[in-house]
Design goal:
Length: about 500
């Protein structure tokens, strides 16, 4: 009889583990606490508008890349996609617009018009992008395994130098004041991000590998859930796992919040790692390193609030990913903002009624700020309303009349994420765990637990990386390990 694999959570890692588990002849069952699949890959509807909390840049859209093959195996590709012309845009208070066009000739011309005195730096930027657009570098580095990585070294070695400088450091090399201010923000308004991250995104966009999935995150996740159930997998929604059952240092089952128990030969957790270790396993399988990872997280500034607006305004000509530079800093949700990171979804007509559009503004703030407010529900709700009002006041300066065009407002915070998917400090999920890229490529240590057999982690705790494809790939890796242990060949074919 086929072994049963129990999976906690229907995020990217959990669903991928389920799909590859089914493909390899196991019986798999996913227990998901929410009413929907996808975890962080989330969007929802409000009065005819679709609000997407997750996808900025979906990688794996070109049939030539390894990421696309992964999505095809998982039932998420092919699908309807929209390809924006630019990776990201930045608008100054004076109305200067920098479009980071994927097309390099167009980008070159545009940058020279904006800042002719920076010709040398502009050339350097354009030349730095090129190697990222030639080969499937992320696929080779993250999905291929050691042998592929070795073969890809000639592509990878020339780009390694770009992992050192940050966006801020590169931005300072422009002499034009607008570009000096705009450039460091190009990678999700995080100037501390390595330049290579942005170059990779730009390069993949040029190759046609980055696009917008029509129907947004919910539909993307739903396509994987459909693939899973078509292969015979079972997803049980509204089923929160409260305990992982063990016997003689083997994981043997789970207990749900209603007291029901389910048993299997293998248990995979796609849930938050810290909560899996401290709550579901009651801290019984720890070592020094894990204790470090699980310590009370620092109260870091994060993208803690999103303001969604459904507006009666045509956004089809607006850039899909825009950073607004503010004329002066404004304190919003306890954070001094000098720019606003936003997405406008005019590119996907399915997300709003005819002629209308959706805007998302992402704000930095702290988890503790909202946690404190939530002690008094009325204060928490009032602050959300205030934040939305501040955002609208700013937008009105750039988009005259928009305040009166707002039909729907929705403001999720990190506490909203926590309520729906149980992460530590919202979606952060690994706040005290430092990413170890090489270890995740060559070792599987973070997928396993000391002293507990038949247990695997998938998802962000195992990968330390916030990307849909990397976390989906962790589910594939887990099933490969299980197949190897069982002495059976792994297959990704139906
Ligand atoms: C705001 C934001 C923007 C992002 N933008 C992008 C982007 O543009 N491109 C990109 O590639 N990636 C993006 N990401 C990253 C990507 O969404 C995540 O890395 C990925 O979805 C995480 O997958 P995961 O496998 O770790 O599972 P998670 O998404 O963490 O899912 C875990 C699942 O487990 C369930 N669960 C938890 N505890 C229990 C329990 N006790 N019992 C039952 N079920 C449980 C949860 O409800 C959830 O469904 C973004 C993430 C965020 C938050």
């Amino acid at each position: 009889m086929a072994k049963t694999i129990i999976i906690i959570g229907a995020g990217m890692g959990g669903m991928a583990a389920g799909i590859y588990g089914q493909l390899n002849g196991y019986r798999t069952r996913i227990f998901e606490m929410h009413t929907l699949p996808g975890g962080q890959c989330a969007s929802w509807q409000r009065r005819g508008y679709t609000f997407d909390a997750c996808i900025h840049h979906l990688m794996g859209c070109s049939p030539t890349t390894r990421i696309n093959t992964l999505w095809q195996e998982l039932g998420a590709m092919p699908r309807e996609l929209v390809y924006p012309d630019e990776c990201v845009s930045v608008l100054s208070p004076e109305g200067k617009l920098f479009n980071d066009y994927y097309d390099l000739e167009r980008l070159h011309r545009h940058l020279l018009e904006l800042a002719p005195a920076d010709a040398a730096m502009i050339n350097e930027y354009i030349n730095a992008i090129k190697p990222f657009a030639k080969n499937d570098i992320w696929g080779e580095m993250m999905l291929g395994g050691p042998a592929v990585l070795l073969r890809a070294l000639p592509h990878i070695l020339p780009i390694l130098k770009w992992f050192k400088p940050t966006m801020a450091q590169v931005g300072r090399r422009f002499s034009d004041p607008f570009l000096q201010r705009a450039f460091p923000l190009l990678a999700y308004s995080m100037p501390q991000i390595p330049f290579a991250f942005h170059l990779g995104r730009h390069g993949y966009g040029m190759m046609g590998d980055i696009a917008w999935p029509v129907g947004a995150a919910e539909e993307f996740a739903a396509s994987m859930a459909r693939r899973y159930t078509e292969l015979g997998g079972e997803i049980h929604y509204r089923c929160k796992v409260v305990k992982i059952l063990t016997r003689a240092n083997r994981a043997v089952g789970v207990r749900l919040a209603d007291g029901t128990e389910a048993y299997g030969e293998v248990i995979i957790s796609n849930a938050d790692g810290r909560k899996t270790l401290l709550e579901l396993l009651e801290g019984r399988f720890m070592n020094k390193q894990l204790e470090g990872y699980c310590r009370e997280p620092e109260d870091e500034t994060n993208c803690a609030v999103q303001v969604f607006l459904g507006v009666s305004r045509d956004l089809s000509r607006e850039p899909s990913s825009l950073i607004l530079l503010l004329p002066e800093a404004v304190t919003i949700a306890g954070y001094q903002a000098s720019s606003l990171e936003m997405q406008m979804y005019g590119l996907d007509r399915s997300m709003a009624p005819e002629g209308k559009g959706v805007i998302k503004v992402e704000l930095f703030s702290r988890y503790s700020y909202w946690k404190e407010l939530a002690k008094d529900r009325a204060r928490y709700e009032a602050e959300k309303e205030k934040v939305a009002g501040q955002v609208l006041d700013i937008l009105e300066r750039y988009y005259t009349g928009i305040k009166n065009q707002v039909e729907v407002v929705d403001v999720p915070t990190l506490l909203t994420w926590e309520r729906f998917m149980g992460g530590t400090h919202g979606f952060v999920n690994m706040p005290s765990k430092k990413p170890d890229f090489l270890a995740s490529l060559f070792k599987h240590g973070d997928m396993l637990l000391p002293g507990l057999d038949n247990f695997y982690f998938v998802g962000i705790w195992a990968t330390s990386a916030g990307a849909l494809f990397i976390n989906a790939h962790s589910g594939k890796k887990a099933i490969k390990l299980i197949c190897k242990k069982d002495g059976r060949p792994f297959t990704s074919a139906s």
